[in-house]
Design goal:
Helix content is 29%, strand content 28%. By secondary structure, the protein is an alpha/beta fold.
């Protein structure tokens, strides 16, 4: 039995340990609105494993992602926030920190405005992808880029930031790493994220209805609850139509 936990705090319990991440942002605003509302001086750059940047991104992620999962409140309590911060920082360092002499096909992209404020983050990392939603040795495809940890801060949503980060992650996978496809995991209940990804050309691959997710509680604790995760894929090589519609 494989118990999959969609969180940076816990691991999939199976023959191997794999972390699944999700996304946090409001319903997408594609088209003219996203173009004209883009913040001044917006730029997206890789963290390059810089620890100070990863720590700053951890602080941002606690508010942009974890606070959104909080039931009944908009802000994390100090104790809960510190616990989430510590775990998230370790995870960001493990995934995106400097790996001397190791594969660097793992990056956290950071989107800032002209005031140097972080507006969004987006991770992409090459790893094995389950084929059919079951984690066993006979059910893995070749290693491929997996997009994860996509989050946009509340003040900056519906302004084209998520789209820009996804585009840059795809460009990195294609132009720097030489891959034809990008995968992602998203909770089925996150309709806003799914709507965006489909408009950007991602298509459903499989569902896992037996996943588990962590939800922060107003009491300061964490609840382990059931969820369904959706695996999506996009073909990124093949011209504009392929990039837009995932063909």
């Amino acid at each position: 039995i494989s118990i999959r936990v969609v969180s940076t705090l816990t691991l999939i319990l199976s023959w191997s340990h794999v972390l699944l991440q999700t996304t946090a942002f409001a319903p997408p605003s594609l088209g003219l609105g996203a173009i004209f509302l883009k913040p001044a001086g917006m730029n997206t750059r890789p963290s390059l494993g810089d620890d100070e940047t990863l720590t700053e991104c951890t602080d941002f992620f606690c508010d942009a992602f974890w606070a959104d999962k909080l039931v009944g409140k908009k802000q994390l309590g100090d104790r809960l926030r510190k616990s989430l911060f510590d775990s998230q920082q370790l995870e960001f360092r493990r995934r995106y920190g400097i790996k001397v002499g190791k594969d660097r096909r793992s990056e956290l992209l950071v989107c800032r405005n002209n005031r140097k404020q972080i507006m969004g983050v987006c991770g992409i990392q090459v790893e094995s992808i389950p084929n059919g939603g079951m984690m066993d040795e006979g059910n893995l495809v070749d290693a491929a880029p997996l997009m994860s940890n996509v989050a946009v801060g509340r003040p900056f949503r519906r302004r084209g930031i998520a789209e820009a980060m996804v585009q840059q992650a795809e460009d990195m996978a294609l132009k720097q790493w030489g891959y034809d496809e990008v995968y992602l995991y998203v909770e089925e209940g996150n309709r806003a994220a799914i709507k965006l990804y489909r408009k950007l050309g991602y298509r459903d691959v499989w569902k896992d209805p037996y996943a588990r997710t962590i939800v922060p509680l107003p009491s300061g604790g964490l609840k382990n609850t059931g969820t369904t995760i959706l695996c999506m894929k996009k073909r990124i090589r093949g011209g504009l139509l392929s990039r837009m519609f995932g063909g």
